[in-house]
Specification:
This protein is α+β, with helices and mostly antiparallel strands. It is about 30% helix and about 25% strand. Helix 1 runs antiparallel to helix 2. It binds magnesium ion (MG) (2 copies). One magnesium ion binds next to strand 4 and strand 5.
Length: about 260
């Protein structure tokens, strides 16, 4: 497995890319109100990214979908897990939760981060699912230290999410990030057996737990991109890009 460790100078460029992503996400979060379309959120985020001299990373991305991804954001509402396509027909309504995932490319390096937003007043279950997902990401980040292994990251997420009665999505995992949006290693959000490498200084990974209210299983929607929970219960998603350093985890996409 080819894992590309970044220099301090490269990590500083990535920090700029991630700070642009953080600003785009903050603007989209602010705009996520009842009556607003997911395409409006997409335009707001794209403006922030281009104004900062960066490019949207997802637009035109040829990943798991049947055609290039058309948006700057992935916007995934309620039972949608990830990879929802922004649309003027998808209008946010009171009580929705929407996962907003954003990537940007700056001077050859990628930033990637995501959060889930409550639209107006949401159910107690939705609030708890969002809180537990964000907490599981923070616990994972605490484990992103030299000497630990990749599986300690997934284990921290799995223990917390399952301990709260929720389930961890298996079909999509976190990833190394750098000159490519998705690099080695894969970062599962659950404990793995088998190959399990040590975390080293200069490794930069995007940790992005997708936590479901019910079953962990997912289905593809007819659009070929959007992923849905199989039982159509809620899903939440939070993501940060994290550099492993001598001084502990550096969360490049944390707003500063
Ligand atoms: Mg992302
Ligand atoms: Mg990612």
């Amino acid at each position: 497995m080819a894992v590309y460790l970044k220099s301090k100078a490269e990590i500083e460029i990535m920090r700029v890319a991630d700070q642009i992503v953080a600003k785009a996400l903050a603007a989209a979060r602010q705009a996520a109100k009842p009556g607003v379309s997911t395409l409006e959120l997409d335009r707001i985020a794209e403006d922030v990214i281009r104004s900062a001299g960066a490019e949207p990373a997802f637009k035109g991305y040829q990943g798991s979908g049947p055609y290039p991804f058309p948006g700057t954001l992935c916007t995934s509402i309620n039972e949608e897990v990830v990879h929802g396509i922004p649309s003027e027909e998808r209008i946010l309504k009171e009580g929705d939760i929407v996962s907003i995932d954003c990537g940007a490319k700056y001077h050859g390096f990628y930033g990637d981060s995501a959060l889930t937003v409550a639209v107006g007043k949401v159910s107690e279950t939705a609030r708890r699912l969002m809180r537990v997902t964000e907490e599981s990401l923070e616990l994972a980040i605490k484990n992103a230290v030299v000497g630990n292994r990749l599986s300690d990251i997934g284990g921290a997420i799995q223990d917390h999410a399952e301990g709260e009665g929720f389930a961890v999505v298996r079909d999509f995992v976190g990833h190394g990030i750098g000159r490519s949006l998705h690099e080695e290693p894969q970062v599962p959000h659950y404990r793995t057996h088998g190959h399990n490498e040590r975390l080293r200084v200069g490794l930069v990974i995007a940790i992005e737990p997708m936590i479901n209210e019910g079953t962990w299983q997912v289905d593809s929607a007819p659009d070929g991109w959007t992923q849905l929970t199989r039982d159509r219960k809620l899903s939440a998603h939070f993501e940060h890009s994290v550099a492993i350093s001598e001084d502990g985890p550096q969360v490049l996409s944390r707003i500063s």
